[in-house]
Amino acid sequence: MLEVSSFQKSYHEHLILDVPQLTIPKGVSWFEGVNGSGKSTFFKAVAGIIPFEGEIALKGLSLKQNTVEFRRKVNYSYAEPRYPAFLSGKEIIDYHQKVYQSDGSEVKILIESFGVEKYYETPIGNYSSGMLKKISLISALIGKPDLLLLDEPLTTIDAAFQNYLLAFLAEQECNILIASHHSLPAGPLRVSHHFLVDKMTIKQVS
Question: What distance in Å separates the CA atoms of residue 174 and residue 156, rounded to the nearest whole number?
Fold first, then answer.
């Protein structure tokens, strides 16, 4: 369970999000909102990537008071991942493997499952957006996180891989938060909770 209280995030004194209280239960949660509504901002705050006012806690573990421990339990995949062009996908994956202290067998399975073995050792400056998105998704899945944050996970990838990804996610044991401006297609991954990001706040719809 993720608990959010007195949450506020501003950029240059311009308020982006104000969430007095929010409880996100176990399961798969869909955060719906138009582009610019604050979905990515909220996910980055939960991932510990950007500062914020207020409190975020996962199963009672405070992000601000136990930053390192909290961040080891939470992984994030960007909507539009960006890395230095000279790095290879392998270097990015190896970095996440080290940070999350994952064994090689888990990483090998992810590389094979996502079909990146033919190119992931080459510089990402040569990747398509879909190829890069797969590297970002693999990186987020490393280490068996308690909470997986996926920002627009279905963009830039083809329909066949979208279906595969949703089936793959349905088999994961972690809690999953998905930010998307459109609903997820019907399939094996069932949304447990629906949240709306609108008018500078977040409210549970169902």
Answer: 24
- In three-state secondary structure terms, 45 is helix
Give the mean model confidence (pLDDT) for residues 165-179: 96
- The model scores a pTM over 0.90: yes
Q: How far is CA 95 from CA 81, 102, 138, 162, in A?
A: 15, 10, 12, 25
Among left, alpha and beta (phi > 0; psi -120 to 50; other), residue 63 is alpha
pLDDT at 187 exceeding the cut of 90? no
1 residue type, one letter: M
CATH number of 2-204: 3.40.50.300
- Distance, in Å, from the CA atom of 14 to the CA atom of 105, rounded to the nearest integer, reads 46
